[in-house]
Amino acid sequence: MSSRNQSRGVTLVELLVAVAVMGIIAVMAVPVYREQKKDAEYREAARGIVAALNDAKAKAVASNREHRVIFDLGNATMATTEGNRAYASSWPGTTVKGPGGFPKSVDIRAGAGCGTGTGSVAVKFSPNGTANRYNPDATATENVCIHDTSGTK
């Protein structure tokens, strides 16, 4: 009879080392995952704004009526409205789309330094394809900025 030492499986120590290594890798991966998720939400918000602006411009040209994309800074939403004429429409108009919100990790601000977080600001598109800033309540000025709520972007 030969005396071969055959092992069938792993020892408890080997199992504990493997579990510890997997735990360390998981702990290192969580912050990276969270940051990637925030980055994806940030990019999604920017793409949503660009899509809404492009859509409003196309609808203004196609329908021969003014369209506005209105950003409600306090509620972090945006909506598209249609005017009742080609120029000098009476507003607020008919809501075409929205209001749609932004992810909780994204904050919408306005103003020269992007410091205004209340009120609303809008972009008005004319049937000839031009765009103008429109400030319905005069509490915000020309820029619309996207910030993540952690303040890193």
Keywords:
alpha+beta, 1 helix, five-stranded antiparallel β-sheet, two-stranded antiparallel ribbon, elongated, 153 residues
Topology:
Elements: H1 12-63, E1 67-72, E2 77-82, E3 94-101, E4 106-110, E5 120-125, E6 131-134, E7 144-148
Antiparallel strand pairs: 1-2, 1-5, 2-3, 4-7, 5-6
If you had to describe this structure to a student in words, what would you say it looks like?
It contains one helix and seven strands. It has 153 residues and is α+β, with helices and mostly antiparallel strands. The strands form two sheets. It has a five-stranded antiparallel sheet with strand order 3-2-1-5-6, covered by helices on one side. The protein has a two-stranded antiparallel sheet with strand order 4-7. It is elongated and about 90 Å long. The mean pLDDT is 78.
The helix fraction, in percent, is: 25-40%
Structural Rg: 26 Å
Q: Count of DSSP E strands?
A: 7
* Major beta-sheet overview: 5 strands, antiparallel
Question: What oligomeric state do these chains adopt?
Answer: single chain
Given helix and strand content, the structural type is alpha+beta
> What order do the helices and strands follow?
HEEEEEEE
Distance between the termini: 72 Å
What is the strand arrangement across the widest sheet?
3-2-1-5-6
Unreliable spans: none
Shape: elongated
Range of strand content: 25-35%
> Could you report the average pLDDT, rounded to the nearest whole number?
78
Task: Note the total helix count.
Answer: 1
Brief synopsis:
The chain is of the alpha+beta class and 153 residues long.
